[in-house]
Amino acid sequence: MKKVLFFCLAILLSVSCMKGKSVDLVIHNAKIHTMDDQNTIAQAIAIKDGKVVEVGPDRQIMNKYAADEFIDAQGKDIFPGFADAHGHLMSLARMKLSADLTGTGSMDELLVRVEKYAQKKERPVIVGRGWDQSLWGSKELPTNEELNKRFPDKPVVLYRIDGHAVLVNDAALKKYGVNETTHVEGGEVLKKADGKPSGILLDNAIPLIGEKLPDFPDAELSQALLEIQNELFGYGITDVHEAGLTPHDFKLLRKLVQTNKLTLGIYGMLYPVKENADFAKKHGFLKEKNLLVRSFKVIGDGALGSRGALLKQAYSDDVHNHGLLTTSLADMKRYSALAELTGYQLNIHAIGDSTNRLVLDLITEYAKRNPDHRWRIEHAQVVDVADFDLLAASGAFPSVQPTHAVSDQRWAEARLGKDRLKGAYAYNSLLHKAGMLAIGTDFPVEGMNPFLTIHAAVNRKNAEGNPIEGFLVEEALTEEACLRGMTIWAAFASFQEETKGSLEKGKDATLVILDRPFRSKGTYQPNFSFMTFIKGKSVFSME
Q1: Which residues neighbour 302 within 8 Å (Cβ) at sequence distance 6 or greater?
Q2: Residue 529's beta-bridge partner residues?
């Protein structure tokens, strides 16, 4: 009897030895898109201490490793956690706390929403965000007459969806000292026919009021951020490149990271104001848990929707307007020197072809001294075809948002004319010149849904399937290019390719198991995360 027991124990020990070193988690029966150089697709993954130990066939991984937990993925698709390479966490948090004006179909609907918000929230100033006059069947920006009638005394400040225009009532203009004589470089106070302010402020004129507004309490902003984090995890987004942090917002995010409340991977771009610049000079790069800060964000011009993007030639639908350079060339050079001094990346918002050319010249000069700078052009929305070769030579890294193309297609030709469309939303051309793209959404300007991003990039259509033939379809991205732009290329664009962006041995086990089979072609099919993991730990589950 003892011999039999000894024999059984020996068998168990031998099986245990065959299993090899134990791991924390094995996920099997999956379709794992590793996003490695060979586009390997595996069936199982072994994870220990938050790192990928091995990916491979089911039989190989199941026989080789003993795990504390096994998850049967039921044949579902697995990807590295998606990165949104250009988003605005803080702007979305403030939008959640403001009057929601997204999708309003008319000025009347906007006014009703503002009134309902004012009835529910007792705020010293009513702030709303998200209106877009192009949805109202209007080419022109609105004026504030109706807003003045509804709100004659309380200041009202309503931001356009892109954040580059704001509609305010006369009470706000009076309170903050803005009138027909106000002038600011890189911005504009639009006027009516009688010379009085229309209520619209563009670009650098916005801070004349915006910087004086009372902010929401930190406790409310923090709660909104945690809600946003859960929404992101629900889509399988595990990393966000936060495209512009004030000193206050930087400190708030950092505190939430330090207290383990914000576990989302954040690549922070600091606005190069004095306090942020002093931090970079003193401390250099900041790598603290899931927060990495090593870049500056500069806003070069405005947006096409509000005709603030700086164009080489005038707008086709506003022949006296070229747009606005919101950061002077002298300041761009100064920020370039700051980035060079601190070793920080410089990420410049450039929408119009004129601004893109200025930025390309700047990056080309810097590249002579540091070829691996990875300085980014955020948006690269309209690039003169004649400047594409300069982009290739400069080493500039384009960071683009495919949903902008299908949102703007309603009016893009009116703004630019047919000829300039050849270099607009030209993601395929940008990829061929640059070799890589970082892909994001620019939320809350667009939605954070990565599957809409993929649909827009691959099919060049919106969720409703418009336009039917696709918009500038020759500039569509392949499925692989789009996925790489949301994983490994986004990691490279933020100097994190050694730890993120693909599911390979030694990298972070940060991944998403999709709820439905992944599909990119044809009509838009909604999808979500079934489970989301950061460094091997579940942060979201449908179950």
Answers
A1: 164, 202, 203, 308, 309, 310, 323, 324, 326, 351
A2: 514
pLDDT band at 19 (very low <50, low <70, confident <90, very high): low
Listed in sequence order, the residues at least 6 apart from 46 whose beta carbon sits closer than 8 Å to its beta carbon are 23, 25, 26, 52, 53, 54, 55, 61, 64, 65, 67
Joined tokens for residue 63? 């026989």
Q: Out of 197-206, 359-368, 377-386, 396-405, pick the least confident.
A: 359-368
Contact 68, 47 (CB under 8 A): no
Provide the 3-class DSSP secondary structure of residue 51: strand
Name, in order, each residue with C-beta under 8 angstroms of 12's C-beta and a sequence gap of 6 or more. Answer: none
pLDDT of residue 17: 42
Q: Could you tell me the fold of the domain covering 20-75+503-543?
A: Urease, subunit C; domain 1 (2.30.40)
- Centre a 10 Å sphere on the Cβ of residue 126 and count the other Cβ atoms it contains: 22
d(CA 441, CA 401): 5
Under a CB-based contact definition with an 8 Å cutoff, are residues 453 and 482 in contact?
yes
Of the candidates 523, 463, 458, 465, the residue with the CA atom closest to the CA atom of residue 484: 458
Contact 30, 503 (CB under 8 A): no
Contact 166, 159 (CB under 8 A): yes
User: What's the CATH class of domain 89-210?
Assistant: alpha beta
pLDDT at 211: 94
Least confident interval from 292-301, 321-330, 363-372, 377-386: 363-372
Same fold? 20-75+503-543, 89-210: no
Sign, Cα dihedral of 305, 310, 312, 314: positive
Looking at every residue in the chain, the average pLDDT score rounds to 95
* Closest listed residue to residue 87, CA positions, set 510, 379, 381: 379
Residue 274: Cβ-neighbour burial (10 angstroms; 0-12, 13-18, 19+)? exposed
Residues 187 and 173: their CA atoms lie apart, in Å, by 15
Question: What's this model's pTM, rounded to 2 decimal places?
Answer: 0.94
Q: What is the pLDDT of residue 20?
A: 72
Strands 237-245 and 265-270: parallel
DSSP, residue by residue, 452-474: HHHHHHHH---TT--STT-SSGG
The arithmetic mean of pLDDT across residues 111-132, rounded, is 95
Give SS3 for 138. coil
pLDDT of residue 12: 38
pLDDT of residue 16 exceeding 50? no
Contact 404, 379 (CB under 8 A): yes
Domain ranges in the chain? 20-75+503-543, 89-210
